[in-house]
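Retro notes
What went well: the complex prediction finally ran end to end.
Inputs used:
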Amino acid sequence: MTSSTVKSPAKSAYWAGVRDGSPFILMAVPFATLFGVVATDAGLTVAQAMGFTVLVIAGAAQFAAVQMMMEDAGIAFVLLAALAVNLRMAMYSASLVPYLGAAPLWKRALVAYLNFDQTFITSVARYEARPEMSVQDRVSYFLGVATPITPLWFIMTLVGIMVGSAIPEAWALDFIVPIMFLAMVSPMLKSLAHVAAAAVSVIVALALVGLPSGTGLLIAAGAAMVTGALVETWMERRKA
Amino acid sequence: MTYSTFEIWLIIVILGAGTFLIRFSFLGLIGDRPMPPVVLKLLRFTPVAVLPGMVAPLVLWPAATQGVPDPARMIAAIVTVAVGIKTRSAIWGIGAGIGTLYLALWVFAIR
């Protein structure tokens, strides 16, 4: 490999991220549009709806907050519910530490701002598959994944605000998100420990579905992580 | 909605700041200090621990059908997972899942 003919690794890591993030355009476009429509219907101004999208940049929490605002819930309840929906991202933040902890603070802050389900899962899948990646390449890849999604998320919210018409029910938009998430996580089920963790996650989340926003999921995720670690330890011992 | 303009902006700004702090938390504070092996082991399971639990209720009790289980959505979910595992590719899983969803919705609609 001669350096004159090959793009610098950071650059190619960035473009690999752009490529791997592109399918999520399918999800960002309709949902950002929908958020614009819902936020306008709820009575938010253009600036307020865009403020939500740019400052919070977390679809599920944005919808949860606007939903509760439409019901005139107390401000503290709106904040608690929406932040609870986002608490899973503390786990994302922690699990990025071994990969990105050595990056400069401002890069870690930038990654944190862009750390949502799609960017996190896609990036971690890549980091796991390629342990030899440098920290710089990992940051570049992460920013690459965010590149096709984030600007569209902003622009399409604005389009939703301007157009303001609902999206036909026949598009079954509600189910695009579950399909995307299932497709993202299935390739990561690569050992018995991973399968066991996923199964516990599903069972506990279903059992606790009545708990207030996000809390059941946090308990399910905690139980699943412990299950995964225990099964992995058990398998290592058996092999030894 | 009966909030004042100030209250609405208060919600937006606190929610934005709170969400950023959640995302920045560990990545910002720990940096490159080493973490205990047991914590690293737990964290490796984060994606498979969070996403299945997040999706499961949406698959069994879709909001679009007022929580009534819907065979089209369930079949689409199963195909997505099967193709995702088989091909080890999220893109194939997404394509197969969305294709199956629209096909199944159409089949169940004309039946």
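What we learned: Chain A touches chain B through 96 residues (CB under 8 Å).
What to try next: split runs per interface for comparison.
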